[in-house]
Amino acid sequence: MAKILVIADIKEGVLKGSTAELLSKAKALSAQTAVVAIGSNIESLIADMAAAGSDTQYIADDKSLELFSAGPYAACVVAAAQQFEADMIWFGFSEAGKAAAPRVAAQLNAACATEIIDVTLEGEQIQVIRPAIAGKVIQRIQVNTQTLVAVVRAGAFEATPGITGTQNMVKLSIPAPDLKAVIKQILSDASGEIDLADADIVVSVGRGARDQAGIDLVRELARDLSAGFGSSRAMVDGGFMAHNKQVGQTGKIVAPTLYMAIGISGAIQHLAGMTGSKTILAVNKDPEAPIFNVADYGIVGDLFEVIPILRQEIKKIRG
Amino acid sequence: MKILTTVKRVVDVELNIHIENGAIVEDGLQYVINAWDENGVEAAVQLKENNNAQTTLVSIGEQDNTDMIRKCYAMGIEDAILIDDPALVAPDAFAYAGILQKVYEKGDYDLVITGKQAQDTDSGQTGIILAEYLQLPCVSNVISIEVMDEAHIRVSRLGDSGTEIVEITLPAVVTVSDSINEPRLPAMRGIMMAKKKKIQVMDLAALGTSVEAVGGAAPKSEVAEFMKSKTRQAGQKFEGDAAQITAQVVELLANEAKVF
């Protein structure tokens, strides 16, 4: 029976849904499951972690682990993987995961695959499926080692309803802080805004919005829907939107239930970050814009005219 | 400060890619410098201009890489090394990192700058594994680099809950995001000078290693098959009276797609 260790995705004291998604996939592969949770004041989440489908919970809970630092974070994962004798170690899609996974793989002499969208296990042979070349191709990767470290793409797996696990907490020793790369400060995202990674609906704004007034108009739509508010590269480069709002190959990769691309033409790099969405709506003036090639619903029109009507109609239908 | 920066030659993602029998059709492909590596080169050249850094570039590949290397010379890179060895076939990130480790150890570098990922694999592993092999501090997804003193830099990186400010003791490895800068277009004078500059070409033996030693003969993972990406079908596109088509689309979102 394979053993799969999932890194618990904890943000602001809450266990995120991706943890149950990854554990559900692990159970679907008939694997034994464990999580490793790293942070400060997280022991209280043990019950949540068990309920998400883990049968063992490795915990590294210490004030020194409050701010993400890749070195100590990776050390905790390696310690848990070794104690559990994990065959696979899965990170959910996050910057922390992307920074830590290759370190963990190097330390465990394991293979490493990022952005995976599927994994198969036949006997001891592990294979993964992942997009590459800005999403233009899909690779089937054969793993030649016994152990694989993977970062799973957002939205790749679904949580199984009714999944459960058992509480069995194992405390890890706390690694020494990385004195050569010291995190001094986090300039946090605008507070009160919905995290793009978690949002059920994402509204993104592009060059068509022109300026701050246009952005504010589209932001109102996002607020109405309690949606995450994202951006194309053009608006980030133009200084209108923060870097961490950029959706695309180089920014955030999202897979919400509904993605609204407002005034976004649909460059390949942007498409790489959002074509995993369930439903896509595009609003664009240019009927030839490539975004319409991937959109389920397209409105050809000026967003300054369309957005107020869109808000009104949505309010009508949602009551 | 001595900087080592890495560049990879990658397929141009703007062009169509065709797949036959599980492999990418080479015919018609064009190759470019990996965009994130170009940001790394620009960051290195800025550190040369503003902080007197010395800049060396390394690329792993074949003679085809020389055009790309000359472009980096024209941008302001001072020295370049090309690692060209026929034994090296489709190296994985661990093999690249193993080779870069040998290059690093031959110089007396203070800072390694790599792109945060390569456009062809989108993996984002090589720079981080290199740091692990060298036991150096590493910060990934960096959007600014500031020199504090001879032995320290301050960088900012895009993290999960905001921009993280990290102080790093050199030597170190950083991987950069394209948000860090806008790579310059080389001036004509730079392009002319770049044509005359020498590129140091080495094989693995000259580096004091071999394809087996860097793990290139037994990759930890390999691409078994390339497949076409599942392209989304274009859906329904509405043109005409804004009020009418918008109401229609909202109705479809609610009753057909059932997202509201």
Order of helices and strands of chain A: EEEHEHEHEHEEEEEEEEHEHEHEEH
Backbone shape of chain A: globular
Structural class by secondary-structure content of chain A:
alpha/beta
Q: Spell out the CATH superfamily of the largest domain in chain A.
A: HUPs
What does this protein structure show overall?
The complex is a heterodimer of chains A (319) and B (260). Chain A has helices at residues 17-28, 46-51, 70-84, 95-108, 212-224, 233-237, 268-271, 303-318, and strands at residues 3-7, 10-11, 14-15, 32-39, 57-61, 88-91, 111-116, 118-122, 125-132, 137-143, 148-152, 169-171, 181-188, 201-205, 228-231, 258-262, 279-284, 297-300. By secondary structure, chain A is of the alpha/beta class. Chain A folds into two domains: 3-171, Rossmann fold; 201-318, Rossmann fold. A seven-stranded parallel beta sheet of chain A has the order 7-11-6-1-4-5-12, sandwiched between helices. A five-stranded parallel beta sheet of chain A has the order 15-14-16-17-18. The model of chain A has no long low-confidence stretch (mean pLDDT 94). Chain B has a single domain (2-202), classed as 3-Layer(aba) Sandwich (Rossmann fold), CATH 3.40.50. Helix content of chain B is 28%, strand content 30%. In chain B, the strands form three sheets. Chain B has a nine-stranded mixed beta sheet, with helices on both faces. Chain B has a two-stranded antiparallel ribbon with strand order 2-5. Chain B has a two-stranded antiparallel sheet with strand order 3-4. The longest helix of chain B has 17 residues, at 35-51. Classes of the chains: A alpha/beta (319), B alpha/beta (260). At the A-B interface, helix 4, strand 7, strand 9, strand 10 and strand 13 of A face helix 3, helix 4, strand 9, strand 10 and strand 11 of B. Strand 10 (137-143) of chain A pairs antiparallel with strand 14 of chain B.
